[in-house]
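Quick review question:
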């Protein structure tokens, strides 16, 4: 009996599910190690970079040694990672120079308004930018009774579901824009779904927060109801934030986009008054952790995405709801940007008559013609909506579903907030609270 081959020859080179093991192992380590006894937990905190880089290196070696186009795939993945971390990192640095000074404590109603406003802001400066700007004020305005659910619902609303209306809102939607989805097309087609989803999540949050407020001692309730005062500092970083957002639309030539982002971050760090960084307790610890872990995630998820690309049609998806839940399920544990692209490619292959299109690279060929043809079809456009919402909404299901999630968790922990563990987040909040809402939205609208 022969052992299972790592690769099997077919029309091309097929990817074996065996290669998905490093990715699964890395996710298990991220989930389990923080729950281990102090000595093991300290060991993980010290050596997690070795685990992430080591598991990623295993996959890279297989790709280079056994896949004819493996080198090109690795280079493309590293390019995507570099772009991803430049955007995430530059927004982290610039947001760290913006200080909303909050005195007093927020009532449940004020918290509700704050999160709703954060959802709108996420569509203007991205979920990453909104998360980095607002998470510290959110922690400060709830400092007397801050709890894990405050961080969880912030991730649900500001870091994920809020940014579903514009290409700036979340990375997968920007990729859709680059592939031919008009800039204002989504807001015209998903606004009602977005509004219903956010309203349901915010309603559940209000119940959680009202119960927490009512359980607080009366002296604390009285203090919370006192007048709040706000002060804004670090205004120069609004300019640098706009520079980063503008850089997103620059052409991908000689890393121009990334250079502008990094330059804005460097200028922000240089010109932000030290007192603002001190008030924000700014340090590079959270972005370092995100950068190292997602380096491993990007590399180890290559086989998972490759397997999906090769075998996706075998799933027999024919309904928008199937695309919604399938893209959402993978976006929960994979980076949602490449997941979005894979399902968009799958939908295009299923619903677009490519024989009627000019061959790629030929004179007059439009690389976005397939997506444009789907948008023109009332039936096919529902699949773009399903993929877009699934990729954005379900990114909130785990800490690794979207870049800002892990960063918000790290900032909250560095601020002394006791946040849920990986499994606590999933089994206490994502599965019993968020999933029923997203499932109801999917069945109702898709």
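Suggested answer, residue by residue:
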């Amino acid at each position: 009996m022969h052992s299972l081959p790592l690769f099997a020859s077919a029309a091309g080179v097929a990817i074996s599910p065996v290669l998905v093991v490093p990715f699964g192992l890395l996710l298990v380590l991220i989930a389990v190690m923080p729950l281990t006894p102090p000595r093991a937990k300290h060991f993980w905190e010290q050596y997690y970079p070795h685990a992430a880089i080591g598991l990623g290196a295993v996959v890279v070696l297989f790709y280079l040694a056994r896949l004819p186009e493996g080198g090109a795939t690795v280079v493309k993945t590293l390019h995507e990672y570099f772009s991803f971390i430049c955007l995430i990192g530059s927004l982290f640095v610039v947001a760290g120079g913006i200080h909303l000074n909050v005195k007093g404590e927020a009532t449940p109603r004020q918290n509700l308004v704050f999160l709703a406003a954060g959802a709108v802001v996420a569509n203007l400066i991205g979920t990453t930018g909104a998360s980095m700007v607002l998470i510290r004020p959110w922690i400060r305005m709830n400092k007397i009774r801050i709890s894990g659910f405050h961080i969880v619902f912030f991730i649900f609303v500001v870091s994920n579901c809020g940014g579903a209306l514009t290409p700036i809102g979340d990375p997968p939607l920007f990729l859709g824009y680059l592939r031919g989805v008009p800039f204002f097309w989504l807001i015209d087609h998903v606004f009602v779904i977005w509004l219903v989803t956010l309203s349901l999540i915010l309603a559940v949050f209000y119940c959680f927060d009202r119960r927490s407020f009512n359980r607080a001692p009366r002296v604390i309730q009285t203090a919370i109801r006192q007048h709040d005062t706000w002060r804004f500092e670090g205004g120069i970083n609004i300019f640098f934030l706009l520079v980063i957002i503008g850089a997103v639309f620059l052409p991908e030539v000689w890393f121009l986009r990334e250079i502008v982002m990094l330059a804005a971050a460097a200028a922000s760090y240089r010109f932000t008054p030290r007192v603002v960084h001190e008030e924000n307790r700014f340090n590079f610890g959270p972005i370092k952790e995100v950068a190292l872990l997602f380096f491993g995630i990007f590399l180890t998820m290559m086989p998972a995405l490759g397997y999906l690309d090769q075998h996706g049609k075998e799933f027999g998806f024919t309904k928008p709801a199937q695309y919604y839940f399938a893209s959402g399920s993978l976006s929960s544990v994979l980076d949602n940007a490449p997941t979005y692209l894979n399902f968009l490619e799958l939908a295009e292959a299923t619903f677009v008559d490519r024989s009627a299109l000019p061959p790629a690279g030929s004179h007059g060929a439009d690389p976005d013609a397939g997506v444009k043809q789907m948008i023109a079809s009332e039936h096919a456009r529902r699949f773009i909506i399903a993929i877009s919402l699934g990729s954005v909404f379900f990114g909130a299901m785990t800490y690794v579903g979207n870049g800002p999630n892990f960063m918000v968790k790290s900032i909250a922990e560095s601020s002394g907030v006791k946040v849920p563990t990986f499994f606590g987040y999933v089994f206490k909040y994502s599965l019993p609270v968020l999933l029923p809402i997203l499932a109801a939205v999917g069945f109702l609208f898709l």
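Why it works: Residues 1-11 have pLDDT under 50 and may be disordered. The longest strand covers residues 99-103.
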